[in-house]
Structure formats: structure tokens, C-alpha cells
């Protein structure tokens, strides 16, 4: 694992079921995540995914790549274009830094209207060894 490595692309179909199930599982009962009529009344063309579901999908993307021993140290994301039913969110990632057994990965999740999520994930992976070209992680102690 070295700086510049790209993670494989993960395409996630954004279904109505995924949006509603994610909202319910995270106890987010805002009507814009499950009621299309009320979402439209509030100016949205349809229901849309909540940030907690997005956060979980970003975490899944990282741990699917780094394996079952991987431990998320931090997930810092920002939402952009909403994820509406019928679209696909395509997650991509690039390793930005490696120090010891911790990698910092820049993640982007795009859909048909733009970037749904952008952010940075720090993940600890036992046995991960950074290359000699590693860059120190922000906040790391020397």
C-alpha cells in the first residue's frame, strides 16, 4: 500500500428500499427520507438518502477493501448532490498518506447529478506497511 494507490470502484444502486431502510436503521424518521409526497411538498423531487446511510456506505467501502481486521479511525465526509432513488452512487478512493499501519484515503461518491459525498477516512490495518515514499498523516506525532 502506497500513496497514490487507487481503491477499486464500488457501484451502489440507490433504491427506494436502501434509502428508507438506512433512515429507519439509523432512527432518522425525517419524512424526506421515506415519504415522497411530503418530500415533494418540501421542494425535493423525491425522497433522498440521509447522511448516516452515506457514512455507513463509505465505511463499508473502506473495510471491504482493507479487510475484516481494518478499523476505522475517523470518517470525515461532506454531502453534496442528493442520492435519489433510481440513481447509482459510484465510490472511488485514493490513498493520500500511509504511516505505519494507518492509511488515509480520500473518498468520492458520485451520482448522476454530481458528487454526493466527498471526504477522508483514516483506517488502521494491522500489518499494513507504508512505502518509503509515505507522507505523514495530519495530526501524527513524530
Describe the model.
The chain contains three helices and five strands, in the order βαααββββ. Helix content is 23%, strand content 37%. A hairpin with a 2-residue loop joins strand 3 and strand 4. The chain has 142 residues and is α+β, with helices and mostly antiparallel strands. The chain has a five-stranded antiparallel sheet with strand order 1-3-4-5-2. The C terminus is likely disordered.
Which labels suit this protein?
single chain; 142 residues; alpha+beta; five-stranded antiparallel β-sheet; 3 helices; 5 strands; disordered C terminus
Chain-averaged pLDDT: 92
Helix content: 10-25%
The SS-based structural class is: alpha+beta
Shape: elongated
Order of helices and strands: EHHHEEEE
**CA-to-CA gap between the ends?**
21 Å
Largest sheet properties: 5 strands, antiparallel
Weakly predicted, low-confidence segments:
131-142
User: What is the subunit arrangement here?
Assistant: single chain
Number of helices: 3
- The Cα radius of gyration reads 17 Å
Strand order of the main beta sheet, please? Answer: 1-3-4-5-2
Number of strands: 5
Strand fraction equals 35-45%
Amino acid at each position: 500500500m502506497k500513496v497514490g494507490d487507487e481503491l477499486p470502484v464500488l457501484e451502489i444502486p440507490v433504491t427506494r428500499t436502501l434509502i428508507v431502510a438506512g433512515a429507519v436503521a439509523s432512527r432518522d424518521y425525517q419524512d424526506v427520507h421515506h415519504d415522497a409526497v411530503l418530500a415533494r411538498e418540501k421542494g425535493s423531487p423525491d425522497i433522498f438518502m440521509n447522511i448516516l446511510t452515506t457514512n455507513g456506505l463509505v465505511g463499508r467501502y473502506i473495510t471491504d477493501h482493507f479487510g475484516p481486521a481494518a478499523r476505522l479511525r475517523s470518517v470525515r465526509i461532506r454531502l453534496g448532490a442528493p442520492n435519489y432513488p433510481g440513481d447509482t452512487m459510484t465510490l472511488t478512493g485514493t490513498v493520500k498518506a500511509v504511516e505505519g499501519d494507518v492509511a488515509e484515503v480520500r473518498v468520492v461518491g458520485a451520482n448522476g447529478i454530481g458528487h454526493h459525498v466527498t471526504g477522508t477516512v483514516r483506517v488502521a490495518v494491522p500489518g499494513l506497511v507504508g512505502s518509503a515514499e509515505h507522507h505523514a498523516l495530519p495530526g501524527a506525532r513524530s
